[in-house]
Every structure is written in C-alpha cells, then in structure tokens.
C-alpha cells in the first residue's frame, strides 16, 4: 500500500496552532525553538498567541504554517507507534510544497524555513507594488471559469490559478477584473463567489518580481534531488526528478496555476491508498472528499488528532 503525506498552504493558519502539541511533545517544542533561532524573532509566540492580523500577514503565515507542519511531522517520526510510517510520495498545496520537499529529504528544515520566509516577503513586496486580489468560484467547471474570465477581463489581468477540486476554482488578477468576476458569477451558474483575504494577485504575472527574487534564494539553498520520497509538483502534476526541476517548479509556482486536483488524481492513479494531511486545518482533507469521496485522509492538525495516530493518551 502506497502512502502520501500532504501539507497545507497559506490560509490554513489559526492563532494557537501548534501550542498544545509543543506542550505535550518536547521534539515539537524544540522545532519552534530552532525556528526562532533561524528567523531571529519569536515565531512561536505569534503562532501560539497571535494577534491574528499579524499571523495572517503573508510574511508571517507562510513560515508559521511551515514550522507547525514540521513540528507535527517530527512527532510522527519520533513516536514509537509511527516511527515506521514513511511516505512513498509527498505533496503540498502552494507554499505547502516546501513542507512536502522537506519531508521528502530534498530541503533541510532550516533552508526550507529561510525560503518560505523569503517567499512571503517577496510576495508581499510584489503585492504592495500592484493592486490585485483573488476570488474563489464555487460550482463551476474549468471551461465555465475560463469563459467568465474572458468576459470579466476587459483588458485587465484575470486568470484561473487554483484548480483545487471539482467545483472549486480560484481566479486571480486586478481588483477591477476580480470585482467583475464576482458580479458575473451567478450568470455563469456559480453557487457563490468568495473574495479571498489575500494581499495580492498570487500565481499571476503580477508576482513576476517575487518569482525572480525567490529564484535567486532557491539557487543558493541546499536543495537536493528528493531522496526519502517522491514529491509531485503543483504546476505540472508530475514528480520532481532533479534539484533543478525543484528550483524551476517552486519559481514558476508564484506566477503559474496550482493544479491540486490533477496532482491528487495522479497519486490515486499511481496506487496511493493511504493519505495523511499534516499541518494546521483540514483544507486538504475537505478537497479530497470532493476529488474522490471514497478516499480516506487521516488529518493530523492538533494534539487530539496527533494522539489518535501515535497512540498516546
């Protein structure tokens, strides 16, 4: 039986995440300490205590989710009941791909943390220099979303960028085009359109400056070919084969579409039967229910769900 570890991306953060796990498991607490040393500020306090507006910022949420996911993974790796639980493949949604590559042995914890911090800073800077946002469209297929974008664009930037699951596609672009997309959603048969709480038009050409800044950081990081497990790339739905492909994939992520549904369908087609979502929230567990109702995902997001797996009372 093949096993996959899945890792959430930006938006999964909540104040208090990781606090109960760090109190119960010294290895988790140690990872937050290591993160504070790498970053030079108290990320632990922001994760555990907030405030929410600081945690939710692009520059803070990305390292916060990365470290919380890593802490949960470290408990799995070091607990006797789950020490032999190893993934055949890993995958992460957008920023979560860094967690996935870390779990696969392609990036060290320290390098991964530095990279997601740089990624968040670069994305925030690009967002500050442009005016954009994102809208989640519920209940439309890809063709309808593309038609809606064609009508709403009116010479401005608007693209479908997150193909999350059947009936959930996120579009990204200029403020005006996104506003028109919201207005046109009902006409095209959408159940609803939800404006996302994001800083800018992520996964579009408006992030090109961020992509170049990130590429430089990726080239300097100690990325190796995924060793412990294979990692599937968001932008292609194919497995990374080389370190150069990882650098290219993580760079292209910022300006290209995230094909999460395609990635999960590929894993299912390749015989993966056992899925674990490791990190705050239940986003990926919910998406899998829409992609394939029969597939069970074990969610490991807090102390209670972690103890259910590692067998401690």
Q: Secondary structure elements and their pairing?
A:
Layout: E1 2-7, H1 19-24, H2 26-39, H3 43-49, H4 52-55, H5 58-78, E2 89-92, H6 96-103, H7 109-128, E3 132-138, H8 142-153, E4 158-165, E5 168-174, H9 175-184, E6 192-195, H10 208-220, E7 230-231, H11 243-253, H12 260-269, E8 272-278, H13 283-291, E9 297-300, H14 303-310
Parallel strand pairs: 1-2, 1-8, 2-7, 8-9
Antiparallel strand pairs: 3-5, 3-6, 4-5
How is this structure best described in words?
Helix 2 packs across helix 7, helix 5 (58-78) packs antiparallel against helix 7 (109-128) and helix 6 runs antiparallel to helix 7 (109-128). 49% of the residues lie in helices and 16% in strands. The chain has 14 helices and nine strands. With 313 residues, the chain is an alpha/beta fold.
Gist of the model:
This protein is 49% helix and 16% strand. By secondary structure, it is α/β, with parallel strands linked by helices.
Fraction in beta strands: 15-25%
Listing every helix as H and every strand as E from the N terminus to the C terminus, the arrangement reads EHHHHHEHHEHEEHEHEHHEHEH
Mean pLDDT: 95
Number of helices: 14
Give the tags.
313 residues, five-stranded parallel sheet, 9 strands
């Amino acid at each position: 039986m093949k096993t996959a570890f899945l890792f959430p991306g930006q938006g999964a953060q909540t104040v208090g995440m990781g606090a109960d796990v760090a109190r119960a498991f010294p290895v988790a607490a140690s990872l937050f300490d290591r993160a504070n040393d790498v970053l030079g500020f108290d990320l632990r306090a922001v994760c555990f205590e907030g405030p929410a507006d600081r945690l939710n910022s692009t520059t803070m949420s990305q390292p916060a989710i990365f470290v919380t996911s890593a802490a949960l993974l470290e408990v799995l790796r070091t607990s006797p009941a789950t020490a032999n639980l190893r993934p055949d493949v890993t995958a992460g949604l957008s920023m979560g791909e860094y967690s996935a590559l870390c779990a696969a042995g392609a990036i060290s914890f320290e390098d991964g943390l530095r990279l997601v911090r740089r990624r968040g800073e670069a994305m925030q800077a690009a967002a500050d220099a442009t005016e954009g946002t994102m809208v989640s469209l519920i209940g439309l297929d890809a063709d309808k979303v593309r038609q809606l974008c064609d009508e709403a664009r009116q010479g401005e930037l608007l693209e479908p960028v997150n193909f999350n699951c059947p009936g959930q596609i996120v579009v990204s672009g200029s403020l005006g085009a996104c506003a028109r997309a919201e207005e046109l959603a009902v006409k095209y048969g959408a159940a609803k359109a939800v404006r996302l709480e994001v800083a800018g038009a992520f996964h579009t050409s408006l992030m090109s400056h961020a992509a170049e800044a990130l590429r430089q950081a990726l080239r300097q990081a100690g990325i190796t070919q995924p060793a412990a497990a294979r990692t599937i790339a968001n932008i292609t739905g194919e497995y990374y084969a080389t370190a150069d492909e990882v650098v290219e994939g993580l760079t292209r992520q910022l300006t290209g579409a995230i094909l999460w549904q395609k990635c999960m369908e590929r894993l299912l087609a390749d015989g993966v039967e056992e899925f674990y979502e490791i990190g705050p929230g239940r986003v990926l567990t919910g998406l899998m229910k829409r992609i394939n109702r029969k597939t069970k995902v074990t969610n490991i997001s807090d102390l209670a769900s972690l103890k259910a797996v590692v067998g401690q009372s």
